[in-house]
Amino acid sequence: MNSLYVHGLTVEYRENLLGTDVARPRISWRLESDRKATRQEAYQIQVAAHCTDFSSPVWDSGRVLSEESVLIPYEGAPLTSRTRYYFRVKAWDRFGRESDWCEAQWWETAFLHAKEWEAKWITPDPIAIDPDADPAFMLRKAFESDSKPVQSARIYATAAGVYELYLNGLRVGDEVLAPGWTSYRKRLQFQTYDVTALLRDGSNALGAMVADGWYKGRLGWENKTRHYGDRRALLLQLHIRYADGTEKTVVTDSDWKATLGPIRLSEIYDGETYDARDERTGWSEAAFDDSSWSPVVEVELPLHHLAAQENEPVRVTETLTPKAVVRTPAGETILDMGQNMVGRIRMSVAAPAGTTIQLTHAEVLDKDGNFYRGNIRTAKQQVIYIAKGTGMETYAPHFTFQGFRYVKVDGYPGQEKGLPLEAFIGEVLHSDMEPTGVFECSDPMVNQLQRNIVWGQRGNFLDVPTDCPQRDERLGWTGDAQVFAGTALFNYNAGSFFTKWLRDLKADQLEDGGVPFVVPNIIQGYSSAAWGDAATVIPWAVYAGLGDKRILAEQYESMKGWVDYIRAQGEHEHVWNTGFHFGDWLALDAKEGSYMGATPNHMVTAAYFALSTRIVRDAAEVLGCAEDAAYYGQLAERIAAAFRDEFMTPNGRVAAQTQTAHILALVFDLAERKDRARIAGDLNEMIVDNGYHLTTGFVGTPYLCFALSDNGYHDTAVKLLLQKEYPSWLYSVSKGATTIWEHWDGIKPDGSFWSEDMNSFNHYAYGAVGEWMYRRIAGLAPITDQPGYKRIRVEPDFTGGRLSHARASFKSMYGLIESEWAFKEDRLKVNVAIPANTTASILLRGAQADRVQVGGVALAQADGILLFRQEADGVRVEAGSGSYSFIYDRPEASYRTYHAGMRLGEMAQWDTAKRIMDRHAPGFADNLGFMSRMPLASAANSPMGSYISQEQYEAMLAELLSIRE
């Protein structure tokens, strides 16, 4: 068996991609090798049309000398529509080995041109059926298939609304809420379905149900409907290809029939009402009598803006069974799902005809244990099922979703004696992205926090990145997506998810470059700092995390447009000081009655102006736009200088005395280098003086721990993470949260709630701390100059001793990366796994090179280690692919110094600590950024370093420890 092989083939991030209109789809693969430090030297790709016979390929790349194996564009003859392409890859490595051809995979094109649509948009005749009728439309058509072997059959379909398809009585596909939500006036996705196995010789029938969905239903807070159009419609084209090469096409046209069916109401916010007595048994089968059904009419809707499905569709990804039945003090019967989830309940019941069962959904119970819906606002979140009385019936809503943990049940037969748990199944719905990341550590509450972050992403990444999945909102807020993008890309491969959504952002962007608050945009609001910056931050995050250069190219004009828009605002081209801004939204230092934090809004705008301009500069360099790179680079420097003039004091302090103001100056690299230590010290002092509590909102919170860890206060950052008292990340965990809350005190310590007007218990923004957990605690991150984890940074930070172990794994485009560390008595073990065709820069913090062993041998003798060197913070190891287990002496001096410092901190002997340090090693404390009232956490980050000799260090340590004792 060959010890080098190719596997994991994808096209545009997906395996066996059915139905794409990408003209040059990109191919990716992974390498597996039994040798360490394996790097690809060359590859060969072959693509064949229709079959796996590669003797006459439509593209043969030949042997290409390149290490690239991610997102390689197809370079063959122009693709043709409705064609399956098979492809295979082989690779050569730097050891001179050649792999076998991998197993062939495929992708299939859909329509590549709008002119290929023969179908017409259809809707029920408005004379017969009111276009504004609440019930979902049912549409059908019978047709004949020739009695000869069928090679393939494909349906291409979409709707103005949301739809489900049926063929010969069976559901087509497993997508939910198709065609998804896009900027419908400019972009509408269509789906491709393989229905070969459902087709019959002779008589067949197609059926479709169409509801309002996002297209025509209620969205926003003003009971506004018809955001995109005033009637639902269906577009469908079935292509049957016979084995003899002939084809037959069935399309939506005036020959279809329509009626109203059992779905009496279905809305995104309000839920669904289903009257099973109105079911039309066999309605999508050929023999059904549709003589009483009404005609349809063709409607004029565009075809030119149709796009094949771009992201993973929404699907049922998991099922949950209720954990308990709760009888509340108010006498309500409640199902507890044990998890705040997004999706629907599938219910089974045997009941007399006309029995009405009502399911009402909510996230929490109040402090008395009663069902609480105050935070749902005007959304009904209600499902009503009326039984038909024909034995056991099973039902789940079709065109809606709910955000809930608790379900109040009314009308279920015999419920006063107890509900049968097995009759209720929770179906979890979200965009079916590939899970990629795992983080865990020695603290069980942090592990629950990570689970909450993942569940928050699942619930809110439902075709668009929503802000909350339960109340009358569920909109694609740009600010939330922007701050969470880094975390999102660890937990899931969100490449195609963000690609699709960013295309809508670009579509909804104003001509002057302004970016709406929500995408797709259905409210009148544009261009707030940190919100509009989704236009730059997210494309760059996808590029860095997945190596997707095309997304930068696609979004480049949008990115530039946003920065140019900011520059054009007001009279000062380098400080954006006009317009409305959300600022540090929901920060705890806000004035009474305000949602906006105390950090000046114009400071937030200036900081993000600098960030976005730098991103555009960097994108220009990647794309080879040298003039733009120079222009935006110079602009960024002037913006940073203007920031310092406007928001920094002459002696280098941050003028605004808020945590977020200091965070922005540090993380956005806006302070002079000479001032960073002082600013970091001031930030740390704010945290310590506040009892190790944060006061930050949407802008400051995602960057808070980075600001601390990267400036000598990692221990403070970890202590913040582990804080259980309000306000903190673990406070909600201590209150039983299973998702991330919108407010730090969504449920107050006394059990009462924050204001009902805006209190989501599934609101992922503050889950952005997950990125720091991956990058700093586990130490796993890409290096941007070789994006997509082609080159990997592994720098786990265990200093402080508050955690005893941590582990992160990440399924990158190249393969699985792992970083794990654990204290084993007086030893430290660091395990690292690096996939083939990548390299890693690993920091063994606190290590001495001659004391490190790898798999039982010295560093200098270890296979796969390319080089190593001693640095101030430890040993820097450059490694090729493979699995490594590093073991070395626990950095005890750092560890003990930290504890001595913490003891001094508890005794408030800060000045004493600094005097001791200055006496033994003048300037040591200042070089490390120690100011008055600052703990000694930095000593754990730079033991012995370049500032201090071993003798000085040991003498200082002894005196510090004597004070502690």
From TrEMBL:
InterPro entries attached to this UniProt entry: 6-hairpin_glycosidase_sf, 6hp_glycosidase-like_sf, Alpha_rhamnosid, Bac_rhamnosid6H, Bac_rhamnosid_C, Bac_rhamnosid_N, Ig-like_fold, Rhamnosid_concanavalin
Presence of the UniProt keyword Calcium in the record: no
Positions of the Alpha-L-rhamnosidase concanavalin-like domain: 327-419
GO molecular function per UniProt: hydrolase activity
Domain Bacterial alpha-L-rhamnosidase N-terminal: 148-318
Root EC class: hydrolase
Record domain Alpha-L-rhamnosidase six-hairpin glycosidase: where: 436-777
EC identifiers of the protein: 3.2.1.40
Record's protein name: alpha-L-rhamnosidase
Catalysed reaction equations from the record: Hydrolysis of terminal non-reducing alpha-L-rhamnose residues in alpha-L-rhamnosides
Organism: Cohnella boryungensis
Domain Alpha-L-rhamnosidase C-terminal residues, every copy: 785-854
Key words of the record: Hydrolase
